[in-house]
Amino acid sequence: MLSLAGIEHVYLACGATDMRKSIDGLAALVSQVFHLDPFAPSLFVFCDRRCDKLKILYWDMNGFWLLYRRLERGRFKWPKSSDAGTLTIDRRQLQWLLHGLELEQSKVHRAVSARVVV
């Protein structure tokens, strides 16, 4: 069963990725181009040129997961700049992205931290 509880980072591969790449091709991109460890407890997210397909690569104990999402209508709000290489986002931003929203939401409630008043 897929469990994302131990995910430490979510990396977006900025720009377009060839969606014909399989697990091995995407893992090679992560390792050789982005200089990251594909076996780390992280999600590596890739998008096609039309911004209507995503692939997510994830290592889980003894094998890779490759998740694929295709939108029937609309486009993902994907970062266009390929200069950045990767962009690190949090899991909440990933949910926004998967639902077709911008990575930065101006009306979102900010995280509240507990304060002890003495």
Q: What secondary-structure arrangement, pairings included, does this model have?
A:
Elements: E1 9-13, H1 23-33, E2 42-47, E3 53-60, E4 63-70, E5 86-89, H2 91-98
Parallel strand pairs: 1-2
Antiparallel strand pairs: 1-5, 2-3, 3-4
Characterise this structure.
The protein is 16% helix and 26% strand. It is an alpha+beta fold and 118 residues long. The protein has one domain (9-98). A five-stranded mixed beta sheet has the order 4-3-2-1-5. The longest helix has 11 residues, at 23-33. The chain is globular, with a radius of gyration of 16 Å. The model has no long low-confidence stretch (mean pLDDT 87).
Strand content: 25-35%
Mean pLDDT: 87
**Basic shape:** globular
Tally of separate helices: 2
Gist?
With 118 residues, this protein is α+β, with helices and mostly antiparallel strands. The chain is built from 2 helices and 5 strands; from the N terminus they run βαββββα.
Record keyword descriptors for this entry.
single chain; globular; 118 residues; 5-stranded mixed beta sheet; alpha+beta; 26% strand
